[in-house]
Design a protein that fits this description.
Layout (H helix, E strand, L loop, with lengths): L5 H11 L6 H11 L2 H10 L4 H8 L2 E4 L6 H6 L6 E4 L1 H5 L4 H12 L6 E3 L6 H14 L5 E3 L7 H13 L5 E2 L1
Parallel strand pairs: 1-2, 2-3, 3-4, 4-5
Helix pairs in contact: 3-4, 7-8, 8-9
Pfam family, one: LRR_6
Protein name: F-box domain-containing protein
Organism: Entomortierella chlamydospora
Amino acid sequence: LVVIPVTFFIFMTKMFRTHALDLHEIRSIIASSLGLKDLTSCARVSRDWNNSFTPPLYNSVVLSKHGPNMESVEKNKHLIKRLEIQSAAYEKLASTSARGKVISSIIANSTLAILIMNNNSIGDNGAQALSEALKTNSTLTTLSLWHDSIGPNGAQALSEALKANSTLTTLN
């Protein structure tokens, strides 16, 4: 655990700023200076500071066998700007409808800019669920669907969604 004395930040504030930092500002400064490994450790140890450490942890998320679980991603989806869903995590979802709901829910968040779903075999059903979410999404700029077993019906649904979506600039 990285420990940075709060008194140091207060001292620096008095030297270089005209007002004292509040606790939120101090926490933000500390959180922004830590790497992901340290942020993770701090978030586990300090529940009081969790709101300061959690946002940077969820900026870019890889949903994998060993990463955060789907419940954690769902809870913090408003913080995620880049999300990669690996096949091991995608296949854990029980049914096609559950997968479609997760995709729709994730895409519906207001901050997600990049979604990578390569090698997930989402098929036509997944592409159709994704298409419905894309019609109303206004933040996603990059979508990657390499090797996802999307057939003609899924491709058609995606093309219809792209007619309504004006923010997606990169589709792989």
